[in-house]
Amino acid sequence: MDDARRVLLTGATGYIGGRLAPRLLDAGYRVRCLVRSPGKLRDRAWASDPRVEIVEQDIADEGSLVDACRGCDAAFYLVHSMVAAGSDYAARDRELGEGFSRACAEAGVGRIVYLGGLGETGDELSEHLSSRREVEESLRVGGVPVTVLRAAMIIGSGSGSFEILRYLVERLPVMVTPRWVSTQCQPIAVRNVLEYLVGCLDAPETAGGTYDIGGQEVMTYREIMRVMAAERGLTARLVIPVPVLTPKLSSYWIHLVTPISAKLARPLAEGLRNRVVVREGDEGGRIERSIPIRLLTVRESIRRALDKVAADDVETVWSAAGVIPGDPDWAGGSVFTDARSIEIDATPSDVFRAVCRVGGGHGWYAAGVLWKVRGLLDRLVGGPGLRRGRRSPEDISYGEALDFWRVTGLDRPRRLALRAEMKLPGEALLEFTIEPIDGASDRVRLTQTARFIPKGLLGLAYWYAVLPAHHFVFNGMLRGIKRAGEHLHARGVRDGASAA
């Protein structure tokens, strides 16, 4: 195994990278993951494989990036700063691509593989897709051969495209939509994308080539929605296209109805006006000649994705990508704290399991209406709201999104820390800690601590406005966790007795 080729993987905590890593291992490669937040990979089963090397690295630091690239035969570039960089994302992506290319060249990396965006060239190409083209060119500045795979909509459980499609169809029996619903698209299953990415490494002739990749069928977005409705067992959705919905208005519409934020939806909505279909004569030739695989149909892709969601078997989700900020500096400013405790007759593990059920389908144990109202208000002002849900109803991992919270601390079975990503005039953190009482193995104290750092007078006003609701929300949450923890403990005792 020591002779196995080593590949460099950027974006390992993202949607595609998190799925590509285990498939590279299955194919016999050693994988070096460059990540900003190594803790995000702590709960990934494949990350403990001895062939995996996790390196904490900011790819913007070109100096140290060279050392991180040394010894790798190939590098996957799966980085995109669209959300984090805001309106300057295109310039930022060019800079990152150029720096990465130079580092790979100096380190002696044999080739770079990049997953870009499908779309016909020309002046009408959206800024988002144009940026993807610019990244392709930036990766070539160092002289390392670059393999470019261009994909349109990627259909898979947890992908941004899939979530937009699913929520639109499930929530809107009648849709007033922009004209882009009649635009042609050639979706591809995430499974096929991963097969192409891994397959490139065993096809040396693909080095330096650019390939369009897509599934079996070309469809309009309206037709894809019909397939989704049929697979969900829903009646056909009435779609009414209108010419007045601009990309900006479309992004707000997507933001309100789906889990996708307006910030992310805007460039995606702009790209929906472009026809994204595999060309007959792309620059590298037909990729099927080098990597023959069975392409899934749109219906098969959607059915597989829905089955994964139903089976609680979602590998990665779009919302887990992005920067995880460090814990806030609590010193030097006003910090409001609301700490409450409760004693529970259960083991730390049982209570921790109950705590980790917050968010998504389980809700927040109490004051469900208040949480929904807060989520709706957050969506209206551009925040994530409650619709992001969670990857799994039971399992939880560092960096995961739980409705409008983000997991920033995870120490099983003692501590869970969440940071609010809702629109707030300040910073908010919610923390749960579990401690055994007097050394007992089945009696613990659960402490729930909410902290808030206000920004200006508006922040102060916000804290005092929501303070009366804390009694109902936080006390109710503690009691709900207590019930759930004790129920899990009692069930474990019964199961153990039955087994004996």
Structure description:
With 500 residues, the chain is an alpha/beta fold. Helices cover 37% and strands 20% of the residues. The strands form 5 sheets. Strands 3-2-1-4-5-6-11 form a 7-stranded parallel β-sheet, with helices on both faces. Helix 5 links the parallel strand 5 (111-117) and strand 6. The chain is globular.
Question: How are the SSEs ordered, and which strands pair?
Answer:
Layout: E1 6-10, H1 17-26, E2 30-35, E3 52-56, H2 62-69, E4 74-77, H3 82-85, H4 89-107, E5 111-117, H5 127-138, E6 146-151, E7 154-155, H6 160-171, E8 174-177, E9 184-185, E10 188-189, H7 190-201, E11 210-213, E12 219-220, H8 221-231, E13 238-241, H9 247-257, H10 262-271, H11 298-310, E14 336-344, H12 348-355, H13 368-380, E15 401-402, E16 405-411, E17 415-420, E18 426-436, E19 444-454, H14 456-499
Parallel strand pairs: 1-2, 1-4, 2-3, 4-5, 5-6, 6-11, 7-10, 8-13
Antiparallel strand pairs: 9-12, 14-19, 15-16, 16-17, 17-18, 18-19
Helix pairs in contact: 1-7, 2-4, 4-5, 6-8, 8-11, 9-10, 12-14
Kindly report the spatial arrangement of strands forming the biggest sheet.
3-2-1-4-5-6-11
Q: Which radius of gyration do the C-alpha atoms yield?
A: 24 Å
Q: What portion of residues is helical?
A: 25-40%
CATH secondary-structure class of the domain at 336-499:
Alpha Beta
N-end to C-end Cα span: 43 Å
Largest sheet: 7 strands, parallel
Strand content range: 15-25%
Total number of helices:
14
Number of strands: 19
- CATH architecture of the domain at 336-499, by name, is 2-Layer Sandwich
Find the CATH superfamily of the domain at 336-499. START domain
List low-pLDDT spans: 324-333
